Predict the 3D structure of the following.
Amino acid sequence: MRTLALRLIALGVFVAILWAVQTVNWLTGYGLNRAFGLIPRHAAGLDGIVGMPFLHASFAHLTSNTPPLLVMGALLAATATRALIAVNAIILGAGGLLVWIFGSTAIHIGASGLVFGWFGFLVARGFVDRSPVTLGAALTVGLLYGAMIWGVLPGREGVSWEAHLFGALAGAAAAFLLRTHVHTPRLRNVDRR
C-alpha cells in the first residue's frame, strides 16, 4: 500500500510540474515550445522526444490532458507493479522517435502522446495478462476513454494525431514486451513439478 501511495504522490508531482512548466511557458510567450518541442527530422528537435509531454499550447490544452493523466496514471500506478519506468520509457522513447521520423512538419507538443500510450498499454495489458485486475483496468479505461481512439486519425488542425497514434502503438507494444503479472498470489506449501 505504501508503494502505491508513493506512486500516486509521484503522479501528482508530475502533473504539478506540467502546470508549473505551462505557467513559465505562458509567461515567456510560449518560447519553451519552440526551444524544446519535438521537430520531426531535425536534429535540434530530438530533445523534444523528452520535452514534448511537458509542453502545451495553452492552459486549455493542459486542462484537457490533466484528467486522463490522473485517471490512467492512477490505474497504471496500481497495476504496473515493476514496469512503470520501462512502460514510460517505451512510450516516450518509441512513440516520440516514431513521431520524429514520420510526423508532419510542425512543432509537436503536449502530454497527449503519453496519455494515448497509457491508454494503449492499459487496454492491451488487460488482454495480455488476463488477470481480473488488468481486465478491470482495461474495461475502466475503455469505458471512460474509448472514444478518444478517434484521436489517432488525422483531421483536426493543430492536433498531433501522430503523437496519439504512435503513443498508443508504443503503449500496446510495451504491454506485449513487459509481461509482468499483476498481483500474482504467492503459493506456499505447494508441490511444484
